[in-house]
Amino acid sequence: NAARIVRALFEVALRKRWPAMTYRLLNLSKVIDKRLWGWANPLRQFSVLPPSVLAKLEEKNLSVDKMKDMRKDEIGHMLRHVHIGLKVKQCVHQIPSITMEAAIQPITRTVLRVRLNITPDFKWNDQVHGTVGEPWWIWVEDPTNDHIYHSEYFVIQKKQVIPKEAQQLVFTIPIFEPLPSQYYIRAVSDRWLGAEAVCIINFQHLILPERHPPHTELLDLQPLPVRALGCREYETLYKFTHFNPIQTQIFHTLYHTDCNVLLGAPTGSGKTVAAELAIFRIFNKYPTSKAVYIAPLKALVRERIEDWKVRIEEKLGKKIVELTGDVTPDMRAIAQADLIVTTPEKWDGVSRSWQNRSYVQKVAILIIDEIHLLGDERGPVLEVIVSRTNFISSHTEKPVRVVGLSTALANARDLADWLNINQMGLFNFRPSVRPVPLEVHIQGFPGQHYCPRMASMNKPAFQAIRSHSPAKPVLVFVSSRRQTRLTALELIAFLATEDDPKQWLKMDEREMNDVIVTVRDSNLKLTLAFGIGMHHAGLHERDRKTVEELFVNCKIQVLIATSTLAWGVNFPAHLVIVKGTEFYDGKTRRYVDYPITDVLQMMGRAGRPQFDDQGKAVILVHDIKKDFYKKFLYEPFPVESSLLEVLSDHLNAEIAAGTITSKQDAMDYITWTYFFRRLIMNPSYYNLDDVSHDTMNKFLSNLVEKSLIDLECSYCIEIGEDNRRIEPLTYGRIASYYYLKHQTVRMFKDRLKPECSVEELLSILSDAEEYADLPVRHNEDQMNSELAKHLPIEVNPHSFDSSHTKTHLLLQAHFSRAMLPCPDYATDTKTVLDQSIRICQAMLDVAANQGWLVTALNITSLVQMVIQGRWKHDSSLLTLPNVEQHHLHLFRKWNQGKRKHLCGGYQGPIECLPELIAVSEGKENIFASILDRDLQAVHITQAWNFLSHLPVIDVSLSIKGSWDDSSQEQNELPIPTLATDMRDDKKWIKLHADHEYVLQINLQSVQMRHHKGRQDSKAVAPRFPKAKDEGWFLILGEVDKKELIALKRVGYVRYRNAVSVAFYTPETPGKYIYTLYLMSDSYLGMDQQYDIYLNIKPPSISAQISTEVSEAVSHLTL
Fold first, then answer.
1. Where does the UniProt annotation place the signal sequence (predicted)?
2. What is the pLDDT of residue 1010?
């Protein structure tokens, strides 16, 4: 029993936060486990070394560190046993040891964030260490006050030890004034004696941030009636008669002035109404301008669009446009819109080239919702947008109003200074000013491991629902899709022991059964019957909508959701339970804490202004984090900038746009950012030692220097001879235009070759930096290795836990239409496909820039594969919906031996889509007759709809230029497109050498007959997750040299399109064959190619003078 008792005492000492006692008890428990005294040589833990050798080592009194530095023969000589030296040396290197480095960032004057990098420094041996990992204890102790401020248990895994990969732990600890001289971070192995490490945190150069200014007080005002808007149309949009206290206080500033506003107020205080007031001001005063509303998540954008489409578009007659990764309207729609609702990334991409986009210059107000997410990893984008907006308005001299909405902030003043907000526009209310007061209960739970700890929270969660909200709606937030299921099933088990197990179902059971029939998810069918809903991204869209409706209409009482729901939809509940505050982070492969803003957002969903006089929140946390949450849930959290990590990409965008042309410009650009404001206020957070003018200058110029060197290494920019001027290069422009990270373009430059196969291109696509964040969750490395067995292209077997490998597998599964191991993979595939097209388009630009014909053609094939979800080598007939491999014989067999007498029409077997189009002649009955043996009528109709939407394009070509020496005018010469004999002289077109000509390409759409009304430019792509416009790539190349001469993208061909491509003829006279490829960007098997035969004559002097091709053409060439 000794070991158990000592372990229990160790845990007690750790909870009491006594460092010396904790350390002694942990060592004592290892002494008992290993049956060794603590002062014995650590090598006694290895059974392979003979006792005589161990005795000699102890006699010599050598430490492990000393032995690490000795050579094996030295050890052998010292022990007078030559061969044993190697064995001892191996054992010394197998004792677990780690090195630690700590970086500290002050968050407020009382809280420090510590980033601890831990690198393993030992050799792994399965016989000694097992196959999983080595557990360690880490704690932060204050030697003067003898107290532990933070402790955690963590495991260094085998796969991290072998490559010596560093792990990062991030945690927060309190500090007190006067500052102590130092804290110690101590790491002690859970199993090995003599394996420990210490790292010192020094506070000598720490500068604490400024104290935060006080909050805005809520004034005791008479609630303002809606009549104050002074406009009947606006008044009818609101269901209430009076504004709430917060809205009343800010009404005048928002509706009657143009000054910038920052509103910090707790969730649920009606900030959307504030945004609407500012929008109405624009409609009243500047009706020709545009308003832009930026929300951080697509779900929030959708929610706003659904609400405003009805209220603002239908009732006020204003045009609203959604601009997100899923929905990209055409330029005309954007130009006509009065209100644009968008996500930060999309608006950043659009406003990058503001000089050429008049609608960006017409924006009069920018409303940024949840602006406190500035400190989040996506925050830099918000920072850049605002900095750019201020920059644009200083250039066009038209002020743009900025309105920021956020939760209560600690450092609102800094944010306000940066947004150019004076005292009149700054409203930062304290977190307690909620329309519905909130009662919070925080409960701590012991337990090292995540899953058992979550399981131990189920009963308390059930009891919380019974005591706090027996009949009112309850929201339970959990960290993962799997947890939603496990929690729901556990709650059902507790219900089963009650008198009325269906007490949470608030509708007739028969009605509920009708609903359940329509639900797809099997677990959801079970839980809904008990009045419990589940909500996460893995559910089908229809299921999610069903659950939302049931919960909002109080038909079910409990909704268990993943944390994203807190941001995405506004369903308040009476009680909110936050079950666990960590989530599994696929990138670092461990459980990490939610950002505090997320926890506040979840709590903010408690309390429904219409029904409750009080909301309740129960937060279930790991017991060691209880103090932290106690402190921060009531003390607002300051917002810091995270621009540093992605500064290079944003600098690149400004260099490509021409805003930054020198190092000085780059320095000036940084002074416009929020990062600069925070750097002055909290220098230690950003590793700056003091705030004197020189130090700042040096710090910023180093920063700029480092970013520019990164960009130069990525071939994005060129730094001039004088080391001051900066020129953008093609790769930098490509990265900025397609919104890619500079590392991705660097990888393209290094890995694309003149003749890349589709397989190589697929691997390059998967390795794009954009996919580094794709989550690889718990146990997904095993799922990946299973999935890989069913796919055609092999991947590196040691990398199944890498995001890039998972991306590669998901793309292959998409082409092979393979079964995915779980619903999460379907959502992940959508994420991967979302980004894939712009990455491929950028690859195509890189290949075209290098003049690589083979690679460029293969990239267009890859784009077609992604859109249609088939391999390039599959028959193009398989892109028809419902047509599978085993149906192909029907097409081959068609017309064998019959209908030979029917003249006209295509006769042979059908192998590809164009042949099928020719055969069916636009008649559905002919098409149906091929398939009716094996397919149902519904499926045939779906396939026919696809076929009849396919674009059939007629191409005619001509060349423009001057031939005659004397005449000055331009002539046009048609090119025969039908194949004729090589020896036929008529088709060799005579052109002068080294001379510019223009190839005129006329594309005409041959509509199939029954398409009278089809004006739809969208491609038919059932396997692709979002709408995509149909388009074409025109590639002019010379096959013999495998050289690409020109690339042109053409949009949807409605009736006809004329495209001109300028090219230079070769310098040496002779005969050349150029080929023009017309490649679809949406369909497999619809490509065309035409040969152009050129007979090049020696150059003529006067002709050269006369070919001044118009401006319009010259900027089209690549």
1. none
2. 45
